[in-house]
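[job 4471] stage=fold_predict status=RUNNING
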Amino acid sequence: MKTFKVKKISKNSQARRGTLKTKHGKLETPFFMPVATQGSIKLASAEDLRTLGAQILLSNTYHLMLRPGEKLIKQQGGLHSFMNWQKPILTDSGGYQVFSLAQDRTKSGQSLVKLSDRGVKFKSYLDGKEYDLTPEKSLQIQSDLGVDIAVCLDECVALPATKKYIQESIRLTTSWAERTKQYHQEKLKGQKPLLFAVIQGGLDQKLRLKSLEELTVIGFDGYNIGGLSVGESPQEMYEVLDYLCPAMPSDKPRYLMGVGYPENIIEGVKRGVDMFDCVIPTREGRHGRLFVFKKNAEQLIKKSLQSKKVNPGDFYTAINITNAKFAKDKTIINSASKIKELNTLSKAYLHHLFRIQEPLGQRLATLNNLEFYLKLMEYIRKNI
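[job 4471] inference complete, writing structure tokens
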């Protein structure tokens, strides 16, 4: 069954609009996935996300495996029922934790992660207990969670890295992807999630294209562009997308993992990316940084989609609500917001909430930024 359909391609770039069918509904692409790592978006509820018009959420296999455990979630009717979200959910495989936790060290200097052909051994950051995560186990956990889109276990390389290390990473990622596909076909029961694989290769063009070729031979429902936004410059990331996206299957969705700021998203869309996720809107909100559209934002975004280069500030500003200049600012936080508090309360009040360290301030700033990102994608889809 064909799950992805491209409906329109821009005349000015590789930007495209499409639809992606999942068991919990059809998604309009390109889209942004708010990050609910542990089955919850910090300071926002599933009802908030429904109000803001989110199409899909992202959760993480590794964290949900640790707490509360996939067996408990399955007993509760799956992740959708557990968090009261009846729209699609995508789960990352835990591969990113291979990257992030490998950077950490215990007090003895021992790594928290051990890689092998079989899979990954993690030491829990909670209690030190060791977990064995294989490609098959990762997919089974995601299936038990009941998600719509599952991702193959991969190794995300921290940049810079040696060519030899990247080559080994690709070998592991391809091998794990092949085993995941086989398990998906032969072992999973019931309604199966869509299965996406992760393209690796660092900044090396030959290795990136090698990874892509190996994964397309196996065949997946979608392809993730992994290993970017992990230390390289935005321009280096765009250069990878310039040669990688045209080589990717045109009839499959393309997912740029962990990206990014608003200008990064538009640059990705222009190069043919369909799916994005990032913690930036929620993380920045908790620190009092708000994304605000400029006047005539839709027209400015349309212009950005047609321009050669998108810069921060072309269609939005980022304000720090903790700055003293907002202490007496009577203007509304966002008069066009779907959230009543945001379209009635003043910036002065929000400034006050941050000054007294009232969690409500972080919540309102988080909702502001999530709404900004979701509205940004709406403007983008409308103007492709």
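[job 4471] summary: Residues 286-382 form one domain.
[job 4471] exit 0
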